[in-house]
Amino acid sequence: MNLKTARVLAGVYHLAMLYFVTWPGILPFAKSEPLVLGLPFTMAWIAAWIAGSVVVLALLDRIEKKYRTTDGGDA
Amino acid sequence: MEQWVVVTIIITAYLGLTLTIGLLAGRKQSDSVAGYVAADRSFGLLVMYFVTGASVFSAFAFLGGPGWAYSRGAAAFYILAYGALGMAPFYWIGPRVAKLGRRHGYVTQAQLITGRFPSRNLSGLIALLSLIAFVPYVTLQMRGAGIVIEAVTDGNVPIWLGSAVAYGIVIAYVLSAGAMAVGWTNTFQGIFMVVIAWSLGLYLPNALYGGIGEMFTQIVAERPELLDPPGLTATGEPWSWGAYSTFILVSAVGLMMWPHLFMKAFTAKDDDTLRRTVILFPTFQLFLIPVFLIGFSGVLFPGSPPSSDFILPFMILETELPALVVGLFCAGALSASMSTGDALLHASASVVVEDGVQQFVDLDERSQRRLMQGLVLLTGATAYIFAQDPDSSLVLLLASAYGIIAQFAPPVVAALYWRRATTSGVIAGLIAGAATAFIFWQNPQFKPFDMHEGIVGLLVHIPVLVIVSLATEPQSDEHLDTFFE
Known about the structure:
CATH architecture of chain B: Up-down Bundle
Largest sheet of chain B: none
Largest sheet of chain A: none
Radius of gyration of chain B: 22 Å
CATH topology of chain B: Sodium/glucose cotransporter
Helix content of chain B: over 70%
Number of domains of chain B: 1
Number of helices of chain A: 2
Shape of chain A: elongated
Number of strands of chain B: 0
Order of helices and strands of chain A: HH
Strand content of chain B: under 5%
Number of strands of chain A: 0
CATH class of chain B: Mainly Alpha
Oligomer: heterodimer
Structural class of chain A: mainly alpha
Number of domains of chain A: 1
Structural class of chain B: mainly alpha
Helix content of chain A: 55-70%
């Protein structure tokens, strides 16, 4: 994947996160049950988006690094 | 030996260790302003990670977080949501800010903004707004430290003494060693906080209810309204989605604009370190989960603390944990308070001198450092006086402080990304935005959709910035080229 696409996708992920943890995106997921890993559903929903954010940014970092070493300049 | 004596011994040992680390750290740093403010731009990943994490997690997260979970239920989830959102943009902005910092020698946020938009008044305005936002924040940390110490020593060490001792130590190492001390003590305190929070957060639900799922099943059965998003207001009414969503938004926008966090971009060794810090930051955010679990464990517990912010010390004392655990918890809560308080004191002095005073009076490096140290003392003393007032409405002040801080976002983004922005546009926007936030904070009944006043401020701020910029003379290409490649 090229750097530009990767950056755009990471940006899109965080915009989607913003949409799905606030009104109105959160409404279908705003409930206390079923419990997920013992946590109320909404709490687990938000925690999952945070965990996803770590994964997305880590992948982006790997791609950035590859590009920096190939063309030498920083982005 | 009585429990409170054991606890006091543990706290004393912990404070002594913090002081030692703080004082030793300073010996490695140069005597310059870049040394005191930006630690000679030398922080590696481990220190950056904990500096950022531990500065964000303050007494508000450690005491206020469980307090919200306990009294307002699902409303507390907003605190969980905003951190990752607020930090992510820094992945792009951070390295850019750091690069301009290295090129132009910036050590504060206002220097970056006024480097692009030259104006002494703008610089002074930013310094003033920062200070207005800082004092209540420091006060809250001090009061938090005092409350914890008073609670776990059965009142033998009152608030005035506890906060004085804890912050006497903070001021000692901030004065002598600046950014380097803040970095290394935060690393130590950050590790401490994470360990304490996870162990207690997993222990309490298990000990009291037989498991986390079991605890929530019981809460859903007995207090279903509490876990029904977006939770409750302070008075127990259902909270509005407008308020919940804009609290997330204003906190996310404001988070990295806090001068004490933004300035960290200038302390990183290189861009990779900065980017890694951002990537790892959400892992720190997950540390709120055990903190909330501690608060939720108090919901069905018989008896209640004097106020919801006391739920953490209350649970620790009521469940009759060994004195050693109480002492360690107390040290963890002090870590949360002190690791934010030190960064705040350090940043407020740096900002007032560099961006306020220095703009109007020319000082040499030595006098600048002296003046910063004097201001650390003065800010600390002011906050200390406020912290003694039991009725101070500082939590309200802090909420509006976020409204002010969020107004720094448009100038920063304009400085980095919009060539057509002008000095007049930025000043007009900042004044309009801050004034709007202030008016709606004073008159909450007029807020549209129950929105946070900081967001209403931004809705006025951004159009004013754009319109005034377009109506005024563009900046010269020569000047712009030093900011854009």
